[in-house]
Amino acid sequence: MKLVIAIVQDKDANRLRSEFVKAGIGATRLSTTGGFLKSGNTTYMIGIEDKRVQEVLDLIHETSRTRQQFMTPPVNIDAQMESTSGYPVEVQVGGATVFVLPIEQFHQF
Ligand code: 2BA
User: Fold this and answer.
1) What's this model's pTM, rounded to 2 decimal places?
2) What residues make up the domain containing 19?
3) pLDDT tens digits, residue range 50-81?
4) Which of 5, 13, 65, 75 has the fewest Cβ atoms within 10 angstroms?
5) CATH number, domain containing residue 37
6) Interval between CA 36 and ligand 1 midpoint (Å)
7) Ligand 1 in reach of 8 Cβ (< 6 A)
8) Is residue 108 part of a domain?
9) Which atom number of ligand 1 is nearest to the Cα of residue 41?
10) Listing from the earlier edge strand, what are the strands of the sheet with 2-9?
11) CB distance 94 to 8 below 8 Å
């Protein structure tokens, strides 16, 4: 058994949830925040039998889009109190960031 942790964009999260429900795949949805953009994203935790891991990865791959997003770098103020204002820069986000971990034990009491 494996634990799949998938970080997806909020815009793709509902479609992915529908695909999990359709396929009978149990998933827990967490509201998370990216450390770089500091904007919201969605993390799914999916406990799944080894033989269905590829199916989960395929669903994530099919539903997650790559998007361009603008972010404004933080303003730096140096010792002379001069600030360098940050211009917005474009970054590419997604499709999805996925980790697959082994599960030692799985219990549902
Ligand atoms: P964020 O940390 O907000 O990052 C959003 C996007 O900003 C990233 O998209 C990447 O294109 C860019 N980015 C992130 N850190 C950067 C840096 N130091 N310099 C330049 N550009 C940078 P993705 O790679 O698609 O990541 C989307 C989200 O997935 C991330 O949101 C974060 O929440 C998560 N993530 C990505 N890599 C991770 C990792 N190694 N461990 C844990 N979470 C991760």
Assistant:
1) 0.89
2) 2-76+83-102
3) 999 999 999 999 999 999 988 887 766 666 66
4) 75
5) 3.30.70.120
6) 6
7) no
8) no
9) 33
10) 28-33, 40-48, 2-9, 97-102
11) yes
